[in-house]
């Protein structure tokens, strides 16, 4: 959930705000048979270390590797043997692999985003019936924790803010409180749900906001939590 506190330049206002997020995570795991060998010489140890570092990087990046074919290509390159593929063939395969990996990652991210959006809709529907929660025409939900006594900011104003952003599972993804420092910005320089909420508040007020993803960060989310 996203909790946010706002203060105008002339007075103090606090807001708590909840936004819906989507996060895509792609993982790849690969195992390969290994042959036990001794690493007695420095050359063997260096060679093994280089291969380990390369393998770790490729595994972390999700690169599909056939260990036997990889070793064969390495041997051919080091020995100067005739290559079994032309440079054009190698480049074509690399491009095809990159395109396939990108398509798979995008599909997984879309699926994760759709699931999170569904969870967000369910959360909003349940929250709409909570005590004190009001819903605007845009779908923004807010609850007044404390009314203010000062003026309301306009779209032309700037406000000073203390905020805490939380996902719907309660995970905090950003907080000015934890940094011990407020933030100042223009009313229209933030997400639409925040812009709308700020103009509902009087100086000194404290609101709790629940913001649909369409008024917050969209399917891309606010970042990794």
Keywords:
225 residues, alpha+beta, Chitinase A, domain 3, 8-stranded mixed β-sheet, 5 helices, 38% helix, 20% strand, elongated
Plain-language structure description:
The structure is a single chain. By secondary structure, this protein is of the alpha+beta class. The chain has a domain at 134-215: Chitinase A, domain 3. Helices cover 38% and strands 20% of the residues. The chain is built from five helices and eight strands. Strands 1, 2, 3, 4, 5, 6, 7 and 8 form an eight-stranded mixed sheet that branches. Strand 3 and strand 4 (141-146) form a beta hairpin. The termini are close together. Residues 2-32 have low confidence and may be disordered.
Question: Helix and strand layout, with pairings?
Answer:
Elements lengths: L2 E6 L5 E6 L22 H19 L6 H13 L7 H42 L4 E3 L5 E6 L11 E9 L5 E4 H4 L3 E4 L5 H7 L7 E6 L14
Parallel strand pairs: 2-5, 2-8
Antiparallel strand pairs: 1-5, 3-4, 4-8, 5-6, 5-7
Total count of helical runs of at least 4 residues: 5
Number of beta-strand segments: 8
CATH fold assignment of the domain at 134-215: Chitinase A, domain 3
CATH architecture of the domain at 134-215: Roll
Principal-axes shape call:
elongated
Largest sheet: 8 strands, mixed
Radius of gyration: 27 Å
The average pLDDT is 82
Percentage of helical residues?
A: 25-40%
**Between the first and last Cα atoms, what is the distance in angstroms?**
11 Å
How do the SSEs run, as a string of H and E? EEHHHEEEEHEHE
Return residue spans where pLDDT drops below 50 for at least 5 consecutive residues. Answer: 2-32
CATH class of the domain at 134-215: Alpha Beta
Strand content: 15-25%
The structure class reads alpha+beta
């Amino acid at each position: 959930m996203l909790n946010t506190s706002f203060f105008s330049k002339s007075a103090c206002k606090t807001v708590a705000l909840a936004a819906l997020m989507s996060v895509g995570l792609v993982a790849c795991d690969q195992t390969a048979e290994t042959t036990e060998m001794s690493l007695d010489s420095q050359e063997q140890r260096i060679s093994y270390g280089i291969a380990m570092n390369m393998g770790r990087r490729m595994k972390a990046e999700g690169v599909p590797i056939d260990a036997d074919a990889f070793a064969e290509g390495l041997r051919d390159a080091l020995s100067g043997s005739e290559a079994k593929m032309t440079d054009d063939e190698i480049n074509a395969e690399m491009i095809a692999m990159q395109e396939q990996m990108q398509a798979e990652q995008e599909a997984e991210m879309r699926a994760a985003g759709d699931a999170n959006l569904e969870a967000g809709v369910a959360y909003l529907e349940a929250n709409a019936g909570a005590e004190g929660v009001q819903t605007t025409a845009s779908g923004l939900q807010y609850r007044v924790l404390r009314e203010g006594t000062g003026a309301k900011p306009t779209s032309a104003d700037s406000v000073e803010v203390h905020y805490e952003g939380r996902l719907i599972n309660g995970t905090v993804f950003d907080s000015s409180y934890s940094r011990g420092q407020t933030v100042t910005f223009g009313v229209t320089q933030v997400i639409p749900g925040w812009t709308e909420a700020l103009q509902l508040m009087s100086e000194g007020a404290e609101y709790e906001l629940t913001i649909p993803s369409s008024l917050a960060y969209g399917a891309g989310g606010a970042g990794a939590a």
